[in-house]
Write a structure and sequence with these properties.
Elements (H helix, E strand, L loop, with lengths): L8 H8 L8 H56 L4 H52 L6
Helix pairs in contact: 2-3
């Protein structure tokens, strides 16, 4: 078999298909390489948004935990300083009610923030999927 030094199978195939059906391997490769780069950038952006959002959530949760601990210590002091059992039970009941209400309120806030973070983090990925679907609807290297 003789080996042609000037053309590869792809080049010769490309040359034989002049016109609307010509396939440009180099342009196609460049387009696929761009897909990979753009996909990576979308994942990187989504990961950054996710990490930042959950950093905020973690910080807020720790602040809530610290505040709850401080209020628990204060409630314990109040209960310990009660002059009778009735006052102690009222202080404990008041603390429990307040702690529960704060917990429900804070978990609702954190839940909403989690949903927002997840939605925001998914946005670059969704945008990228939409772009890819749009590109796949047309011929490569067009």
């Amino acid at each position: 078999m003789s080996k042609s030094s000037s053309t590869t199978g792809f080049e010769s195939t490309s040359k034989h298909h002049n016109g609307a059906h010509a396939w440009d391997a180099q342009a196609t490769f460049a387009e696929f390489a761009g897909f990979g780069r753009e996909n990576f950038e979308a994942v990187l952006k989504a990961s950054t948004i996710f990490a930042q959002g959950y950093g905020v959530i973690g910080k807020q949760w720790m602040e809530f935990a610290k505040s709850s601990l401080e209020q628990g210590v204060e409630a314990t002091r109040t209960i310990a300083a009660s002059k009778n059992v009735k006052d102690a039970i009222e202080a404990q009941t008041s603390f429990a009610r307040t702690a529960f209400d704060r917990y429900v309120s804070e978990t609702n806030k954190l839940s909403e923030l989690s949903v927002k973070t997840a939605t925001d983090a998914f946005a670059p990925l969704q945008k990228r999927v939409d772009e890819v679907v749009q590109k796949l609807g047309r011929p490569l290297a067009a």
